[in-house]
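Narrative of activities, Objective 1.

The group set out to show that a structural description can be obtained from nothing but a protein's sequence at a throughput compatible with the screening campaign. Below is one input-output pair from the validation batch, recorded exactly as produced.
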Amino acid sequence: MPNKVTNKNNIASNSKTVRTKKKPLEFIDFIDDSSFSDLIPFSNRFHLSAARSDLRKVQQSRDTFDVIVGETASHDNNRAKHDSLDDRLLFLTDPKILVQFKQNKDGKRRIVISENNYDETTLWRIHDAYRVDGAVSRSLDTMVEAIVGRKRTSLILDTNDYFDNDEDEVAKLDEIKNNDLYRKYVRDISKINKHLNMNNYEKMILSSALIYGRAALLIEYDKDALVDNTALPIALKPLSSLRMGRTFYYEDTWELAGIEYLDFREDQRIVEPYRLVYFVNKDYHISPRTLHNGYSILEPILDISETNTLNKQTNIKEINKRLWAAFLIIKYHGKSGKDITNFKKHYKPGMPIISNRDFEAEVHEVAHDLEKLIAQGLDSDKKISRDIKIPIMLTGHDNEQTMATAGTVIHSWINFTLETQRTTFRNIFEKQWIEPLMLRLINKNDELDKFLAEIEFSDDSGSGSDDVSLDDNNNDSNEESNGSTSNKQGFIVSDKEARILDPIDLPFKIKLKFTPFTIDTFLDKVASVLGLVRDGIITKLMALEELDRKQYIPEMKLIHEEQQALFEDMMQQEQQQQEGQQPNNTSKKSDIPGFPKVDEKLKNATDLNKRKSKNSSSGSNKTMRSL
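Output recorded for this entry:
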């Protein structure tokens, strides 16, 4: 036997056709593989070439840091050919796309390509999380409805100036609010918003921005808005965030240059800012080279939502479908296959079995964790609400313990999270919609000179619109413009117009106002307001405004005037009596305080049940009594 084994080994070693079997790669080799990224696998979901760059190369060679804004250091130009695109900013060079940037016709400003934070797979995961998971959609929809408000948003006047004390600011604000010219623009913009159903579009753009990180409304004008500065919007079109391609910004200012929308024709895919209301959620540039892209509010709860959906769509369904009752195992001792087939045909779960055949039946309970899965789903729903930053009691998760502290929790949420979100939304909306629209209305109404005169008159510092900008050679930079220049909106306008076409120069601004969010009941609010009236802190008219019952203010003013007239009449009669003069014929002796006739007049003047409003809009007595 040993000789045979030896011979076989010799034959195998001498033969060239014998193939040796490769040793299988063990699991530990995969972990220690040289191609394994230094980043955690979680980051693979993000579409970041900068984040996926070779970190070992950066650590081993300090020369890598010589790469600055897409170009290598002068002393190492040869290495530029070998640098990957991950080490440099990507500039737009395609002439077919560059020509679509109409606000950069001269082509002097270089345009940088900004990367999306998410790849296509992750975007669809985010899409499915909102569409499928009720906890996600309920929490996000509640957040949007709370930000926008239960009523339509409105516009109010505010000041652009800064003041050293509150008294000066209040005085200036009162002056602005009483200015008919300013109020006219508030009315005009409010009409346009109502005509375009802006309240609905506010919810659209806010929802998409929170879901995907960015969203946009396309503005359609009645004229060419780039050429004609009197063009006004006639329609708004919400762009799908999933169909937005690359984002571009200017290298010199980092301002948004435009976005790419894939549903448009190839030669019209670039949409520039003057045609957009572009909302970006958390545009903090946390991930490198992702400016103007933003982050989804669903990112922290994406895996939780998918696990929640898996339990609801598969695990809980299977338990209810297959494991709701015990399994029955029947051991049939007969040998006839026909008998077994006939038995299976007539067997029905839950029904008694009567047979003269020899068989045994065993009941087997199958263990499952339905209760644990349901409890896990409830905990996941609560975590989703918390991570979206909305109180769990507003999403239907309430109990005695949470309701006891609901007022404090919601009050803190209103003053912190909600107000912060509203301020962010207001800043974007005013900058990209209200201010450009106001400037277009000023030009359309041909009232540019009025505002110019007002700005120049109020500019006491001498550093206003008459300043001359000089270049590096101390020459007037406006000489080459021949009395014209381009403003921020892209219009070719005169220097006189360009000086005031910046809303920050105007003495007023139009601000977006949201409906107050309150958690107090009407009776609680009435009790607190009446206490302030009783202590003399506020008047009755102020109390009606605080209670949102402004329709009764005209009626209350009329009552107040009549009471004041009666009081003055009584004071005059009392003074005449003290001086020993005869009362006039219009008054009688009984018209003095404490006498029946005076008391009856006061009662009739203050009894709303016996009065009818002169203005139908002020409400009826029946409505008042029903409150």
